């Protein structure tokens, strides 16, 4: 449950960097996503076309504060997004470093406190830091979105043990792996580990065939979720024969 | 008066934010506005006077990740 909303698809899809609006629309359909992320930018020519495209998808919109470097910028952007999109959902990004696009944890927390108090339903783009996660929850966040790796890097789950600890530390909070996913296998891995969803953009948009990749991610996320629900076997250090020894012929 | 609209200096007749949107041909219901870094809700645009040098941001939905 993401702020009271049950989603059958656990893939959130970004809408940037596709070769064309038609391919974007087709990729959204192929991905099976129910949540797409969008941004707010200075109005220019052709803005109306994108609005129509969003509406036609029927997806729930998760506006972001991408590109904001201060709490104040992010808060103002959230206010503007709430009015334009008519939703309390906000993907809160406060970027701390231009090269890594790592979240600024201090500004993130400050913005989250303000926005939660104003009735926003905040999806904070955060790191795997447990204390920051606790503070965000105290601030009123009911979802956390730890990064897998730096945005657009395609490196997958860079600190897998840290993410495993985070999953264990917040058993009742929906956790979404946001950013850094490059391949369907990485998305499946996140879902197998018990994350509730993955959010990605570049891996689909920059694939040679975005629609085909959207479909591949859909299957990977579904497979990972099904695997988690089915319960993975425990990992072992040594071999353990799967075929019974009992009844074996004496041929030596 | 001279104001800054989305980063570009403009000479405008409008004296309020809503008049500015009309003058520049923006679809008022589809955009969000901020003046000098502060959000101005749709309902307050009529009453929001512009001052020379004001920095106005007019934003709309765009592709994002």
> SS-based structural class of chain B?
mainly beta
Average pLDDT score of chain B: 94
Q: What is the element string of chain B, with H for helices and E for strands?
A: EEHEEE
Order of helices and strands of chain A: EHEHEHEHEHEHEHEHH
Largest sheet of chain B: 5 strands, mixed
Termini separation of chain B: 37 Å
* Helical stretch tally of chain B: 1
- Give unreliable regions of chain B as ranges: none
Mean of pLDDT of chain A: 95
By oligomeric state, this entry counts as heterodimer
Q: Tell me the number of strands of chain B.
A: 5
Biggest interface and residues each: A-B, 34 and 23 residues
Helix content of chain A: 40-55%
Strand order across the largest sheet of chain A: 3-2-1-8-7
N- and C-termini, Cα separation of chain A: 59 Å
Structural class of chain A: alpha/beta
Give, in spatial order, the strands making up the sheet with the most strands of chain B. 2-1-5-3-4
Q: What is the gyration radius of chain A calculated from CA atoms? A: 20 Å
Shape of chain B: globular
**Total beta-strand segments of chain A:** 8
Notes on the protein architecture:
The complex is a heterodimer of chains A (252) and B (65). Chain A has 252 residues and is an alpha/beta fold. Chain A contains nine helices and eight strands. Chain A has a five-stranded parallel β-sheet with strand order 3-2-1-8-7. In chain A, β1 (11-14), α1 and β2 form a beta-alpha-beta unit. Chain B is mainly beta and 65 residues long. The longest helix of chain B is centred in the first third of the chain and has 8 residues, at 17-24. The model of chain B has no long low-confidence stretch (mean pLDDT 94). The chains are: A alpha/beta (252), B mainly beta (65). The interface between A and B is medium-sized, with 34 and 23 residues.
């Amino acid at each position: 449950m993401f702020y009271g909303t049950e989603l059958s698809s656990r893939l959130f899809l970004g809408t940037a960097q596709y070769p064309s609006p038609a391919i974007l629309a087709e990729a959204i359909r192929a991905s099976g996503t129910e949540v797409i992320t969008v941004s707010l930018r200075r109005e220019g020519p052709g803005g109306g076309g994108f609005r129509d495209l969003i509406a036609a998808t029927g997806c729930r919109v998760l506006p972001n504060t991408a590109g904001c470097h201060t709490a104040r910028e992010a808060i103002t952007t959230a206010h503007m997004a709430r009015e334009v999109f008519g939703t309390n959902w906000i993907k809160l990004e406060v970027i701390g470093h231009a090269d890594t696009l790592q979240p600024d944890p201090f500004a993130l927390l400050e913005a989250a406190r303000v926005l939660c108090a104003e009735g926003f339903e905040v999806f904070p783009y955060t790191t795997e830091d447990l204390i920051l996660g606790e503070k965000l929850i105290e601030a009123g966040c009911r979802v956390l979105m730890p990064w897998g790796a730096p945005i657009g890097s395609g490196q997958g789950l860079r600190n897998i043990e840290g993410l495993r600890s985070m999953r264990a530390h917040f058993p009742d909070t929906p956790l979404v792996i946001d950013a850094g996913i490059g391949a369907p296998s990485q998305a499946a891995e996140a879902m197998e580990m018990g994350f509730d969803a993955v959010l990605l953009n570049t891996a689909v948009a920059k694939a040679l065939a975005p629609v085909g990749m959207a479909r591949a991610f859909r299957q990977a996320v579904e497979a990972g979720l099904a695997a988690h629900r089915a319960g993975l076997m425990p990992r072992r250090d040594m071999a353990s024969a799967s075929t019974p020894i009992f009844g074996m012929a004496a041929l030596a | 008066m001279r104001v800054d609209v989305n980063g570009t200096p403009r000479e405008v007749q409008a004296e309020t934010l809503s008049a500015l949107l009309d003058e520049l041909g923006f679809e008022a219901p589809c955009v969000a506005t901020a003046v000098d870094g502060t959000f101005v809700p749709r309902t307050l645009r009529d009453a929001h006077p512009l001052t020379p040098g004001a920095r106005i941001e007019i934003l709309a939905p765009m592709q994002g990740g």
